[in-house]
């Protein structure tokens, strides 16, 4: 199982990094074309939106896999280790439920856009592809979040 998670982490990291590089290159070329050549990248605005969507939803399972959610530790000094353990478990359950609801909504949106045949006008890509990608990656994040419920935290690790 650990091997699968390590492979998943590497794939997600490389995919996220690749998407970020493509987004930066597209933005660079679009700005150069717009301001120096008077000709922006055709459909550049929509392409940037699609790449940001891909980037966010590719990074989501990675954040969940590494349990790198934003944390505010205002009351930790007043809690016993047992209370912190139960609090952390309750937060993990909330994360699973929230991601499951989001995944369900994204799957519903995928079906909706697919049924209506909607597509991005300037680049002729179906909207359902973006929604489907978001649904699948959020579903993967749900599976990782469920796995986090049963994973023991590293006792020596202090998270910010």
Question: Can you describe what's shown?
Answer:
The protein has 160 residues and is an all-alpha fold. It has one domain (2-150). The chain has four helices and two strands. It has helices spanning 2-36, 44-65, 81-116, 127-150, and strands spanning 119-120, 125-126. A two-stranded antiparallel sheet has the order 1-2. A hairpin with a 4-residue loop joins strand 1 and strand 2. Helix 1 (2-36) runs antiparallel to helix 2 and helix 3 (81-116) packs antiparallel against helix 4 (127-150). The two termini are 27 Å apart.
Summarize this entry quickly:
The protein has 160 residues and is mainly α. It has four helices and two strands; from the N terminus they run αααββα.
SSE map:
Blueprint lengths: L1 H35 L7 H22 L15 H36 L2 E2 L4 E2 H24 L10
Antiparallel strand pairs: 1-2
Biggest β-sheet description:
2 strands, antiparallel
- Secondary structure class reads mainly alpha
Pick out the low-confidence regions: none
Q: What is the first-to-last residue Cα distance? A: 27 Å
Q: Order of helices and strands, N to C?
A: HHHEEH
Query: How large, in whole angstroms, is the Cα Rg?
Result: 20 Å
Helical residue percent band: over 70%
How big a fraction of the residues is strand?
A: under 5%
Arrangement of strands in the largest sheet: 1-2
Overall body shape? elongated
- How confident overall, as mean pLDDT? 89
Number of helices: 4
Per DSSP E runs of 2 or more residues, the count of β-strands stands at: 2
Domain count: the total is 1
């Amino acid at each position: 199982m650990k091997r699968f998670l390590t492979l998943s982490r590497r794939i997600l990291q490389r995919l996220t990094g690749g998407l970020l590089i493509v987004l930066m290159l597209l933005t660079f070329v679009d700005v150069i074309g717009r301001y120096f050549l008077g000709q922006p990248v055709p459909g550049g605005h929509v392409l940037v939106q699609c790449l940001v969507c891909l980037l966010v939803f590719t990074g989501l399972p990675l954040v969940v896999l590494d349990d790198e959610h934003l944390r505010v530790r205002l009351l930790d000094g007043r809690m016993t280790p047992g209370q912190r353990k139960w609090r952390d478990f309750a937060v993990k359950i909330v994360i699973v439920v929230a991601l499951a609801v989001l995944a369900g909504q994204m799957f519903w949106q995928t079906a909706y856009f697919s049924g209506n045949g909607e597509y991005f006008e300037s680049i002729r890509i179906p909207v359902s592809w973006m929604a489907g990608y978001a649904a699948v990656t959020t579903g993967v994040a749900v599976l990782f979040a469920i796995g986090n419920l049963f994973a023991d935290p590293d006792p020596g690790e202090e998270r910010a």
